[in-house]
Specification:
alpha+beta; 3-stranded antiparallel beta sheet; 2 helices; 3 strands; about 25% helix; about 15% strand
């Protein structure tokens, strides 16, 4: 059964549940803003489901990936 509250991006395969709960393939659950900051912003593919800036919301400094020192 397909859950209408779950979207799967054809570009990166990430799952978005309930509009803003992003299930990454590894690591903790995130938000659309974190997904955009770490993936969508760089991929820039037309089929990406996370391009609506009103749905993404505010992107904060801690949404971007920071490598460990």
């Amino acid at each position: 059964m397909i859950d209408p509250n779950v979207q799967i991006c054809p570009v990166c395969g990430v799952k978005i549940e309930g509009g803003d709960k992003v299930i990454f393939s590894a690591g903790p659950v995130g938000t659309r803003a974190r997904l955009w900051a770490r993936v969508c912003n760089y991929a820039q593919k037309p089929d990406c489901i996370n391009q609506d800036h009103t749905a993404i919301g505010s992107v904060h400094e801690n949404d971007y990936y920071k490598p460990l020192p």
